[in-house]
Amino acid sequence: SVSYLPVPLLVLIASALFVRVFYNLYLHPLSKFHGPWYAATTSLVCAFISVAKREDEWLQSLVRKYGSNFIVPLSKLYDTLDGAEHKEMRKTLSGAKVPWAIGLLKKEWESKIDSHIELFASKMQELVTTQETFCLSDRAAEFAADIMALVTFSTPWGFVQNSRDQYGILTSWRHGLTWFGFSNRWRFLRETIVHHWLLGPYTQPSVDDGGGMGHLMRLADEQLRAREKAIEDFGEKEGQMDYLQHAIEAKYHNEPLTYTQKHAHATFLIMAGADTTATALGATLRFLAVNPHVLSKAVDEISSAEKSGLLSAPIQYEESSQHLPYIGACIKESMRLHPPAPNIYERTVPKGGYTIDGTFVPGGCDVACVSYITHRDPDMYAPDPEVYRPERWLVSKEISNQFDSVAFAFGIGYRVCLGKDVATLELWKLIPEFVRRFEMELVEEGSYIVDGGVAYNQGFLVKLRARQ
């Protein structure tokens, strides 16, 4: 215990901490940026705040206190390539045949997604019959997981059909977010332990795990090996170009991707894409459920479009995007207030430094932006940045374009979310179709949880009635 440490050692430790804090606060090249003094010593502060699931609120409080430019220890949420290498890899995974571009999604996959929407609706109708209280946000997550499996491997994994979290993948993903956030925010753990040849494997999921992320990795491994064996035996795959096939055929620096790269891309698309899309689906439905006047407008818009013969069954993406602007505004407003991945997205300042918002930042520093904060900017969204008001997106085309230009739910620039168009297609199809067919009786509003820089919905309980 501390009481058994020699006094000189205690003095030395205290002095070292004092010097570190003093240097970081007053002498460091970045000391002109203000920030909480207690975060000047160690990145553990950010790690523990993440574990407490208070990161979004904490960062918002810092913005109110210090303004939009302040300093805290940043995290590396994902191991990513540097800028040049990342651009090259994105080129590798893009092109005319990319399976997740909105054009190809509509052409090649929309009919299959329609079939899954009908299956989802039939499962919801069963709940209408039984009048069972259930967690709608969980069912939305199961739908999103099946769609990601469909686009990645050409076959859904049975989440919707079986009305359950298959193999515990979604539950394990969420349970793992706390460790994910802690390990990526504590610099020593991230840079030393996680990558250690002996200790690192004990901190990561494995294909030998019985469920959750390890099981997802094993399923992806089985799918990849089976696909490559089929290509070896029978030649090039015929039919739709799914994400796995695209990764198999991709070239990186004129060479095929390694097995590890192909496996990682397939696994990560489902792991990161399913629950984040589900968060957007669940958040939109919850905001509609707790704002009856908004839901009423959405229902009226759908009814009007239906009477005019503008909607198919199920609703097509083009129909939704062109004829249901208020529904689109509801979705955008939901992602503004409850972004699926409110991560601390950092970028490295180029050599020589850069002037940002009138302030010079030395080269090599990491600067970051957080969607939860930018989406509540009091100047951009005045006079009510914290209020759910979809009408703000419909004031004028100019204002709508301005909001779109700063929307950060999927990231911005060349590191924008790879599955953005898949999520967009799901949102603009499932939300209006659900509202068209069902009435929600809110039992429990539930909550929006931010854990490890990733958000999910918890405890959003409803009963359903068929809409007349």
**Averaged pLDDT:** 87
Calculate Rg over CA atoms.
24 Å
Measured distance between first and last alpha carbons: 69 Å
Q: How many structural domains are formed by the residues?
A: 1
How are the strands of the biggest sheet laid out side by side?
1-11-8
Number of helices: 17
Low-confidence stretches at least 5 residues in length (pLDDT < 50)? Answer: 76-81
User: What is the CATH superfamily label?
Assistant: Cytochrome P450
Number of strands: 11
| Helix/strand order | HHHHHEHHHHHEEHHHHEEEEHHHEEEE
Structural class: mainly alpha
Form type: globular
Sheet with most strands: 3 strands, antiparallel
- Provide the CATH architecture: Orthogonal Bundle
Helix content: 40-55%
Q: At the first level of CATH, what is the class?
A: Mainly Alpha
> Per DSSP, what share of the residues sits in E-state strands of 2 or more residues?
5-15%
CATH fold naming: Cytochrome p450
Describe the fold and architecture:
By secondary structure, this protein is mostly helical. The protein has one domain: Orthogonal Bundle (Cytochrome p450), CATH 1.10.630. Helices cover 54% and strands 9% of the residues. It contains 17 helices and 11 strands. The strands form 5 sheets. Strands 1-11-8 form a 3-stranded antiparallel sheet. A hairpin with a 2-residue loop joins strand 5 and strand 6. Helix 5 packs antiparallel against helix 6. The longest helix has 32 residues. The radius of gyration is 24 Å and the shape is globular. Its cofactor is heme. It comes from Hymenoscyphus albidus.
